[in-house]
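Justification of computing resources. Each target in the renewal requires a structure prediction run like the one illustrated here; the chain below, 514 residues long, is used simply to show the kind of job we budget for.
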Amino acid sequence: MLYQIAKLLKKLSHRELYSLYGALAVFVVSGTILAGVVFVQKTVEIPVPGGEWREGIVGQPTFINPVVSGNDADRDISKLVFADLGTLAEIRQENNAKEWVVRLKEDLKWQDGTKITSDDIIFTIETILNPDSHSPLYQSFEGAVVSRVSELETRFTLPAPYVFFETTLKNLEPIPKHIFGNIPALNFRLSNYVLEPIASGPYVFDSYKKNKNGFIEEYRLKANPDYSSKSYISRFVFKFFTSEAEAIAAYNAGVIDGLTVSDPENLNGVRVRHSAERLSAPRYYAIFINQSLASNLKDVKARAALDQAIDKQALVEDIFKGFAAPIKGPTKNAEPTAIEGRIPEGSTFNLTIADIPILRKTAEAIKADWQKIGVETNIVPLSIAEISESIRKRDYQMILFGNILNNPEDFYSFWHSSKRFYPGLNLALYQNSQVDSLIERIRAEVDSGQRLVDVSRLGDLIASDFPAIFLYSPDYLYIVSPKLKGFESGDAITPTDRLENVEAWYIKTTRQLK
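Resulting C-alpha cells:
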C-alpha cells in the first residue's frame, strides 16, 4: 500500500504535490480545531491544587498574632494562619443578645497537634483585656465576662444586650494558650513565635528571608493539610516594599501577582495586564469640628455653610478617580434637613490632617472651595504619632479623619456622647440625647428590618446637626494578575478582608467531562 502511494506521488508534478500537501495541511488543522472545539464543549474547567501566589505589601511584619497585630502586614499574614470562630465554632445568643455561647467543633487542633479548647478562647479574651498587651481589640470586648462551660463551650455575658456581638465573635481569631500562657504579655514580642506562629488557619508558616539590614523581604506560607477547607493554592508568598510605587514596579516586573493600592492616582503606574478589583468599604472621611475651640462654628448655619461650599463630587473624581462616593452623613444615604448656610466672611480656621498624599490633596481642594466664600484655612499636617496625640488631647479646631465601622449599623464608638473624650472616638465631641437613645436601641434590636429603619433615621439626625463635614466613602482597590481565579469582590471592612475566602482562590486548572 505504502509502495503504491509512493509510486503515485512520484508521478505527480511539483504543482500537484504542493496542492496535495496544502489540502493535507488544511485537513490536519481543521481536524485539530474541530477536536479542540468538541473537547471544550464536552468538558468543563475545574480548579486543582498547586501553584504559588505572591502578594506585595508596603511595610514589615512585626508580630503575627491577631490579638496584638498592629499593621497591615501582620493582619494579612494572621488572616491566613489563624482561623476565626466563624470557622471553628457554632455561636448562639441567649437572654435577648445579652449572653452568647460559643461551642467549638470536635477534634480541632493547632498546627502542632495540640487540641483547641475553650481554654484557648478564654486566654485570648484575657490577653485582649490585659492592658499590657495593648490590643486593638480591647474596646470590642470591654465589659464582656467570659466563662468556661466545658472543654468545647464558652459563655460570654455582656453588660447590656448587643446584637452585633455575634459578628465580633465570628471575627475573633483565638491564640494558643499552651504557647503564650506562660509568657507575660509584655514579653510576647520577644518570643520566637513573633514570626513563626503556631496557628490553625488555611496556611502555616514555612520560612522567611531577611536582607543584611534586617528588612524582611519575603515571608512564605504553605497550605495547611489539616485545615477543614483545603486551599487550592499550595504556597502563599508575601513580599515587602517600602512604598506603593516600589510595589507597583515589582508588579510590572512580574515579581508579585497582587497588591492593594491606597492612592488611585497610582493606578496609572500599573502597566501590565491586571484586574482592578473594587471592594466596597463601610468607612468614610469627614472633617470633625471641635466647637469648643472653633467657637464661631457653634451656629449650625455656619457649619452648614462650610459643608455646602465643598464640591464633593469633584473630590471623588479628581482624587479617587471615581473609586469613592460623596456622602452627606455617617451613612451613605443620609440626608440632612435643608438649611441655608451662612458664615461671616473673613473667618479663619485650622484644619489638622495626617500628612499623607490623599488627605493633603483633599485639604488643598477644600481650602480652595472655602476661599470662594471668604473663609481662610490653615492646613496643619501632622505625623501619625502627632495625630494620635492631638486626638488624645482633642486640641484641634477641625480634623480631617477617617472612620471605619466594624459593623455598618453600629455607631456607638463614633457618635455616642459617652465617647466624647479619649479613648473614645467621638472626634466632634458630639452630644445629642435623641441620637444616644437611638444608638442604644439599635444595638439591642434583634429585628434586622427595624434596625435598618432606625439606622436610616440615625444617619439623617446626625447629618442634620452638621457636627462634622462628611466628604466621601472610598473603596479599597486590589490589583490582581489575570492568572488568579476564584476571587470574588465584595464588602471589606479593612483591606485584609480581601483574603476572606482565600481557600477558594486557584491558579491551576484541568478539564473533566461534563
